[in-house]
Amino acid sequence: MIKAALSVLLVLVAVSSAKYIPKSGKRIPQTLSRGWGDQLIWAQTYEEALYWARLRNKPLMVLFHLEDCPHSLEFKKVFSEDNGIQRTLDEDFIVLNLMYETTDKHLSPDGQYVPRVIFVDPTMTVRADIIGRYSNRMYAYEPADLKLFKSNIEKAKKLLKSEL
Known about the structure:
Elements: H1 2-16, H2 46-56, E1 60-64, H3 70-81, H4 83-92, E2 94-98, E3 116-120, H5 146-163
Parallel strand pairs: 1-2
Antiparallel strand pairs: 1-3
Keywords: Endoplasmic reticulum, Secreted, Signal
Pfam families: Thioredoxin_7
Signal peptide: 1-18
């Protein structure tokens, strides 16, 4: 009896810790993911991401980070390990991660810091109203903010459907 219970527990742990795999099957990791989600299809440039967002009528999530920033690394860990985030972004968003600033000043409405997440709708409007919990870094997220981040992802999806 104990062996059976341990076997079931082991299977449940293995299933719950499995990485997200898209419906179309496992993809070859892209170097563009930079560890933020190897199964996601990442745009190469902001211009390309805007093109795909408009063409596919999906919101764009732009993630600014630095490779050696401790705050970026902490957020990357929880971001990349959360299957719900990975699934939602894969199915409902165009995604772009940048380690440099763009020339579009709309993507830094309150300054240039990392990590920073900005949502852009398919009409190419920056969603300045979808913010994190900090008044001095309105688009920053930390690992403890994961619930708010998920809520903002859902908000970006709902705004898309209700406004278009």
